[in-house]
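Encode chain A's predicted structure.
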Amino acid sequence: MKKIAIISNIPITADNHKAALNSVFSDVSIEVVPICDLHGEQIKADVALVTAMDIVPYAKKHLSPGTSIVLGMYTLLKEQLEKIKQLALIGDITVVHENRRAALTRLNLLQRLGIAQERLHIWYPGLGEEILTGQIVSFSSEAVPKGVMPEVQIPGRVLSITTLFEVALGLGVQDILSNEGFTSYCNRVCTHFIPSLDDLTIGELNAMVGNDPPQKGLVAFTQSMIIFYCDEYASSLVGSTGDNLIGRELFDAFPFLRSCKIHTGDYDQEQIVVYGGKTYVVKLNLILQTKKETGYVYISDYWVEEQRQVQLRRKVSGNKSKAKYSFHNIVGSSPALIECKNIAYRMACSNSNILITGATGVGKELFAQSIHNASERKNQPFIAVNCGAIVESLLESELFGYEKGAFTGANKNGKQGLFELAHKGTLFLDEIGEMPLHLQVRLLRVLQEKEVVRVGGNQVIVVDVRVIAATNKDIPSMIENREFRSDLFYRLNVLPLYIPPLSSRKEDIMPLCEYFQRELGVSFRFSPEAEKKMLEYPFTGNVRELHNCVEYLANLAIPEVKVTDLPSYVRGAESVSLNVQNRNMENSMPLVPGAMSLTTESMQVLHAVFKINMTGVGAGRRSIHMCLNNLGVFISETSIRKYVMELEDSLLVTVSRGRGGVRVTEQGIEIIKKNFKNS
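Encoded structure for chain A:
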């Protein structure tokens, strides 16, 4: 569970903050840590909310590495502000607090919330009680002299919406705007402020406070370009200190900023500056505040920010962004497999795109993950997507993301695409042969330009992604049939990797059986006859089918597996195996005279339809998909539809609407009998 630590020197204030945070972050642990209780022990938390700037340095010494520090910013409840506005209509307002600094801070807050400056005065203990006049607004009951009754008493401090946003960012919460507790909180507190100089500097400082040395800096300057604030990081860039730079002209103190354009009122304009061998992102803005112009420069290290974005993307994708397997997980000692692993290992040293080919179930994703974990990108995201498993209408938005309001049913805040999530890492496109032609065009452009544009957007997003694609299709034949773009094939096929089927490396079958037994936590042996049958069986589903077979035997809980214990499809190896070898990417097989030459996948679909029909019902895409899975054959429902259409064109099946489903014709049954024994 995520944890927030509230570090404060005023317990009642901390308790109020805890209640507010609990109303928004219900599934987060929140602990109040009084500053007086810090005696060397380390505070472990994801986010530390520090209630005052002067206790930030002390708090940092006691926080565990990686804790995100948020300095509390404050506002008022709307009902409190409304009472104060009514008082302002009557006369002047005196803001009462325990000391001058605190009173000035509250006065500034009221001014920013729209109370006229000429109406506001301050009072604190030490001043004469005779000047405590007008409408009194007290922010501290202890500061009010006895016998004086404030018109408005403000108990404690109210966290601003900005503070909650920063806490959410530190927790990795991406959908804070859809949180009902957050919405309710927004409706109760004041959120509209008149900008002030103090708000500018403190707001930017908040983003800089962290447990590690800051890698971004802030410089604030007057209308005449004279620096009045400069933090430690910014001053270190020119080998000076903030105190020495205050009062100097901006471009005289920071000559490398002369190449930057000054933007007026636009907070999003960023520029790239190279200085001292480093690359910086600079925001240089001139803004109008309280009837006078001031400006600020916000400087951050480009590569540190880039790495931060990568970490945020990893938080969004979670465990899905990690590659679990390495080359040592690829079991087998056959010459064919060893050669394949050696080639793949050499490919890992490159950043070029890879196209992995091989029959279904040979372990294409296992090789893709191993390549990623052996590459320089191993500490970056590994994102996998099955192009045949996602509905065609959603695949584009999944890959490239979409802006808010891009289409009906979309997330109201928009969504990052998989290319963005895989930035600096690897994107694995499984079953690339299933990708629609119109998306192939977009994918080609991304591979060429290293840029993506979200659906419904116009902003170009630069991405650095290595693409590993995989397929069990004969892509050259698909190109001839205009089902796959040749230019995309050549862009993906920079480094081709073919994984041999299990039928061509029989010596790996028994070591794999032993490996799967250890994985399943069981132990059994094969009789010589059973082992012979296992080696005779072609395993057209390859390693995946072999795993299913071992799992089946594991559930029998017997010490020795005999022939009679083997699955029926292994005992009679020819009963469900096609009368052809499962050669690399073999595209077609000869059928009975008069029938067209069908792909191996079409024949597998025909066989599945026949098995379903034998139960007395018509076959649907879902039932065909489940039947094929049980046989160790994995074909997407989208592809099944295409193969059914091929079979219908060949007069091997009929397709009826409604519950009639798909049924094998007499000619189809003849094909089944000649190609599948015992069917």
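The chain has a mean pLDDT of 79.
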